[in-house]
Design a protein that fits this description.
139 residues; alpha+beta; 4-stranded antiparallel barrel; 4 helices; 4 strands
Length: 139
């Protein structure tokens, strides 16, 4: 029988050195030399979203948690689903995704363009700002 773990890719957003950038504490073992990071110590107490456990997100939630470092992650054992994340007892980072400041700036421009596409007559200055931001990203 297929479980969510078998079908859903999960991610962890961190600062470059592995510390949390959206709250929490500690430091994650980062993937290196093509190898996953070490398993984080297993959480023994009750899993509680935003309070206790390792918090990971699904692909569709990445936009809500974006940060300096995005890693694909996996977990073992219990998983508590939550609308914008999952909370698990044991996790590790599999690999770093290709994400950097340039890509983040282009992503922000893409988001702005999609938002402006919903406006009947967008302000030309907004369109120019996106153009300038793209050029800056490629600078």
């Amino acid at each position: 029988m297929e479980t969510e773990q078998d079908t859903v890719r999960l991610f962890k957003i961190l600062n470059e050195e592995g510390s949390p950038c959206h709250g929490g504490y500690g430091k994650w073992s980062l993937p290196h030399d093509g190898q996953p990071g070490e398993w984080m110590p297993e959480i023994e107490s009750e899993l509680v979203p935003c309070v206790n456990g390792y918090h990971l997100c699904r692909a569709e939630g990445l936009v809500n948690w974006v940060g300096p470092l995005i890693c694909e992650a996996e977990y073992e054992g219990e998983m508590l689903p939550h609308p914008d994340k999952v909370v698990v007892r044991k996790a590790r980072l599999l690999r770093k995704l290709n994400w950097n400041e340039r890509i983040a700036r282009h992503f922000a421009c893409d988001c702005a363009e999609q938002a402006l596409a919903r406006v009947e007559q967008p302000d030309p200055r907004s369109l120019k700002a996106i153009e300038v931001a793209r050029r800056y990203a490629d600078h």
